[in-house]
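Input record (one chain):
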Amino acid sequence: MQFQENGGYMEERIMKNHKISLFNRNSGIISGVREVISFDPNEIILDTEQGMLMVHGEDLHVTKLTVEKGEVEIEGIVDSFIYSDSGPAKGEKGGIMRRLFR
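The corresponding structure, as predicted from the sequence alone:
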C-alpha cells in the first residue's frame, strides 16, 4: 500500500501480462483479464490489464473463465479486437461504460 497526500492509503496494483492467442479466427485465449463486463453472440467486453477490450464477431461464446489466472477462452468467428482506455478522461465521469452505452 502507498500513503496518499490526503491521509488515506491507496492499493498498489501489480500489472499482469496481457496476451491474446487466436487460432483460425474462431477460438482463442485472452490472458490478463480483470473482469468480463458483458457478452452476447456479437460482442464480448473485457476489462484487461491494458484497458477495455471489445471483441466483435459472430456466434461468440465465453467457453471458459479462470478467475485465478485472469484467463478467458472464447469461441466464434472473430472480426476485430478494439481497445479503449479503462479510466475516464479528465473531467469526464463514467469512463468507458458511459461512452459505450450512450
